[in-house]
Every structure is written in structure tokens, then in C-alpha cells.
Model the fold of this input.
Amino acid sequence: MLVSTKETVSFEDIFEYTNNGVLVTDAHGFITHSNGTAEKLLNLSGSDHFGENILSVIPLIGKPIQECLQTYKPVLACQVSEKQAQLILNVSPVVKNKLLLGAICIFQELSIFEVSAQKTSSYQTLNRQLEMVFESSSDGIWVCDGSGVVISINKASEALNGIKASAVIGNNVADLLKSKIFDQSVTTKVMASKSKATVMQFIAKTQKYLLSTGTPSIDEQGNVALIVINERDMTELNTLRKQFEQSQKVKEKYQEELTELSFMDLERNPIIAESSKMRQVLQMSLKLSHIGASNILILGESGTGKSLLAKLIHKNSNRKNKAFVEINCAALPENLLEAELFGYEKGAFTGASAKGKVGLLEMAQGGTLFLDEIGDMPILLQSKLLKYLDNHEIRRVGGTETIKVNCSTIAATNQNLNKLVKNKQFREDLYYRLNSFILKLPPLNEREEDIVGLFRFYLNEFNHKYKCSKTIGPKAMRKLLSYSFPGNIRELKSIVENAVVMSGSNKIDGFIESSIAADESISSRKTDQPIDLNDLNLSDKLERVERQILSEAKKKFRTTREMATALGVSQPTVVRKLQKYKI
Done:
């Protein structure tokens, strides 16, 4: 090829030989010029189109040119699709001396433009970022075109569906649905509605449940251009939901059983109140029930019926259809009481259940929590109970989430809480939190009118239980009425049961009188006998007396709980002492 040294490149040469298509119109949109590239790309025949309106010759290109002429502003990076090719064009107005002369439209094939753009550093950086986001997402991502053909899927989708990208790319989701890769397709729903849709898919190959959400991209013509599908593994969440539902069913079952047992106990052991003191307590109790009062403190000696009174309050309240949960704060060791009260998560401590455990506080949800022997609650646990009473939130042992619990609280004790507070054995703030309302049960020796009724009730109960027909005479009844009953109603019940079972005749007077005499002998045993001056070891003497009392109590009572009640100490103390003396 020869190189010219004389001729130079003219404006006409620039116009004609550029790789971009160039089309020029006048101010009214009539075509005045076009180069060869434009005619080739637009399939125009030479100058035959000169003088024609661009809108009638090439409508898709005519629209942005007409917009430019009307607004006097350039139209840049406009994408159009012609029969021959997809084009990207820029239209600029030609203004001279403030007069609009026409417009110049410069365009090229979109594919060439894209190749050029892909070589830019900004494009490559953005592409890397998008690819990294696409592949590093823990959620599965599918990209389909408007007809449902798979364009791409990420690695997470491969793992969730148990497939390879190469096996699905280029295939239509309708065909994948037929091959049962998944049981339903969100893509087809999006294509039909042209709007966002969500379905729950089951993937047979991986046995996973996937929550799939399809989001469409709508083009300028209102058609679906792309569909992006996001998949999330819901298998574990489904398992947790099922476990939670099962746990709720078990919890509700336990609550129903607890409520039923509470009412049965109240039916078996009704509160007999003939005395004015006891009637006054019952009237106040029913009043507190009806107003839905909480933080009730029941005081009274051991065996006076504090538990029954708490159940009566619950039964007559608007919470009667919910659980009544009783916790004996003295019966559980300190290290177990917290776990029982608040529950624990799986693996919270050595020996904990693999499934964790719902606490008794949670079991009382919507019902009544009865804290018996509250005076024996360990001081460290008292602060946690106080926190619950303040905000009604608990946290299981080993757990991190707080659980909201709404229940009525009733506490009871046979101890002097004021004295415990002074001795720093009971938190003062907890004491005032618990005693919004105080009910004081009188001891049985102050309820003489109730002794006869209680005796008759238990006599009938045990006659029926042991298929007997035992009776009592006036003399023995008078003896009962004059007895102090240090163990209160519990002691009376025990005396009656022993009399029905152990008495050799139908008339139990002799057995009753001997039982009372034996009890009075223990309680009034002389302690002022002459002291052996040769043995002044106080510790040994106290242990000797303690061993003797425990031995006699063990003969008289069937359980350590009954022994504890009669001796005025806690049940764990009795167990510990029996082990100490090997009784």
C-alpha cells in the first residue's frame, strides 16, 4: 500500500471512514447526511433516504433524535435493538449562534462497545467485586433470563441442590422441574406474575428445605429481562421449629397435669374453717384471688396448710385454667435449685440432659408459682429471684437469651423473715417484694373449733382407704381438743391414720390417748436433770440428746419430712443428722 506525502485527511474522510455510524438530521428531524458505516448497520441504500423524516425511516433511532431536538439536550448511551444489531448511540444537538441547526447521532454495535468497556480497569474491578459477592454468598443464587433459561448459579446453590453448574446452565427451569431436581419453581411464578415471589422447595437429592425468593428485572418494554433467585437453607430452622412445637406440647401437657393435680389435692384435703380466725383468713384469700393479686406471702407454722391455701387462691383466680407450680425451696440442694427454677440449656453442666430442660418458672407461664419454704432459699439465688420479680424475665442456666414469663407469685414460710433479714440471711429487698399481701395462718391450737371437723374428715378418709369402720369416743375427743398439736394439721392427720391402721379394736380411743401422751412426753421431757460434774463436755451431751430425739422421732414418723415438721427443722437437716448418727 502506498503512502501519500501531499494529500491530507479531509473532514469528509473523517466522516466517511470512522468505524462509528454517523447520521445527521436538520432541525425538523429530516435526514441530511449518513456515512457508510451507518448505512451498513441500518441497512440503508445510499442517499435514497435523504430528505426523509428519521421517525418514518428508523423509528427506534428517531425517538432519541426527536427528544434531543425538542429539549436541546444530548441523549447519551441510549441502547436500541434493530433487526441487524443491538446499538448504543449518542445524540448531540447542533446549535450555532443560538439557533438549532439539527442533530448528530453517532452509534456503534453494542458488542463492540462491551468489548471496549470490558478492557477498562473500572469494569474489571467491578466485575471482580460482583463475582466475589456472587460466589462467597452463603445463600444460593440463581440467575435466569426472561424465558427461564439458567444463566448462572453460585457454589452455594450447587451444594444446596446437589448439582453442578455445568449441568443446569443453558437449561430451562421448566425442564429442571420435570427432572425433579426441585419440587416447585419460583422462576415460573415470577415469569407469570412479573413480580417478586417466594416458595418453599424440597430438594430430594440433599433432603433440604429451601426458602426460594425470585426477583424480576423489568426492561423498558415492561418485559422480564432477568430473574434473580435467592435460596436459603431452612432445614435446621424447620427442625428447631418442630422441636419447639414438640416442647410446647410437652410443656402444655405438664401444665395441665400440674393444674389437675393441684385441684385434686384441694378436693382430697379441703380447708375446714369453723373458727373465726380461719374464716377471716379464707375471706381475705378469696378477695385476693378475685382481684388477681400477686406477691402474696403466707406465714404460718409447719403443717398449718399453707400449700392448700395457695392452691385455693389459684383455683379461685382468673388463672385457674393455667398451671399451679409448687417449688419447695428447702427440699432441693442449692446447686440444683437454680437449674430447676430457671431451667438449663443442653450441655450447661456435667450431667445435664442433652435436650436441656424447661424451668419451673417457665412451666408456670400464665398460672401461679408457689415458692414454699422461701426462708430456706440460698442467699445467692435470692438475687436472681428478685431480678425475675422485677422484670419478669429469666435466663436459663448456660443460656444467652432472655425469656419473658408472666405468672402470679405466692410465697410461704414457717420462719421469721424479719429475723432472717436482720441476721443477713434473707434479702431485705426480696422480703418487701414478696409481701405485698400477707396472710397469716393460725396454728391448730388456736383453732379449737376446727379440730373436730378435721378429725372427722380424716377419720372418714382413712376408714374408706383402709376399709375400716373405726370410731372415737367423747373422752378421747376431749383429750384431742386439749392437746397442743406442735405439728399442727399434719400431726393430726398422722395421728388419725396411725390410729385407724394400728388400733386393734374399732374404737380408737386408747390408741389416740397413748399417742398424745407419748408426744407430750417427748415435748415436755425434762432437761434440768442433775448435771454430772465429772463430764462437762457440752458438745458430747448435745449430740447424745440429739441422737436420742432423732431415734424416737424415726420410730414415730414414717418419712423424714414428717420428722422435720415435728422437730421444727428442715428435711435436708434431718437427712444429714440421720446419716451423721447412722440411725
